[in-house]
Amino acid sequence: GQQLNQSPQSMFIQEGEDVSMNCTSSSIFNTWLWYKQDPGEGPVLLIALYKAGELTSNGRLTAQFGITRKDSFLNISASIPSDVGIYFCAGQLTDNTDKLIFGTGTRLQVFP
Amino acid sequence: EPEVTQTPSHQVTQMGQEVILRCVPISNHLYFYWYRQILGQKVEFLVSFYNNEISEKSEIFDDQFSVERPDGSNFTLKIRSTKLEDSAMYFCASSGGRGAINEQFFGPGTRLTVL
What we know:
The complex is a heterodimer.
Chain A: E1 5-7, E2 10-14, E3 19-24, E4 31-37, E5 44-49, E6 55-58, E7 61-65, E8 71-76, E9 85-92, E10 101-102, E11 106-111
Parallel strand pairs in A: 2-11
Antiparallel strand pairs in A: 1-3, 3-8, 4-5, 4-9, 6-7, 7-8, 9-10, 9-11
Chain B: E1 5-7, E2 10-13, E3 19-24, E4 31-37, E5 44-50, E6 53-57, E7 65-68, E8 75-79, E9 88-95, E10 105-106, E11 110-114
């Protein structure tokens, strides 16, 4: 089946640093969504991207839909301790499916 | 802010027993989903539901699984005869549209433990 590979698998950074993570696939996606998951909780939607090349911000978060539609990145600027969690990308292959395919996740740890 | 709610938060059951997981989607949403996440792994799609019928399901969603919208607010996932490998977090999600407008909002999950 389709795979969404995220990198890095985990990150350990200092508070205040910027973070960048990405998501790649061999398949073309119509929609990219970025979610954050805290331990024992459900994924929380951060940013949704709908067009190739689209760059969208939500506070300190910025995400881009790759021009080839096979990748996306998420940047977090000036990280804070509450940014800790697992970040998942999720994609939708076509307009004819509702199914979200989730990536493998990037675990972020922020040290004060 | 409207949110998806799920009950119970944790369900422990014996292998072979039936379980029903319950969800209340966001009130004006029309599309409903179940996903599961085995401990330490990624989230996997199970089923999508619209207009009182299943619109798509994965290979995980076999004959042991069923979904229902018994009234105007609840959306349930039933596992008829649970197996050990059904132990996972089960997430309900809902969205207001499909296709190009498909921002799915997830509930907090039900942790299912099958003994």
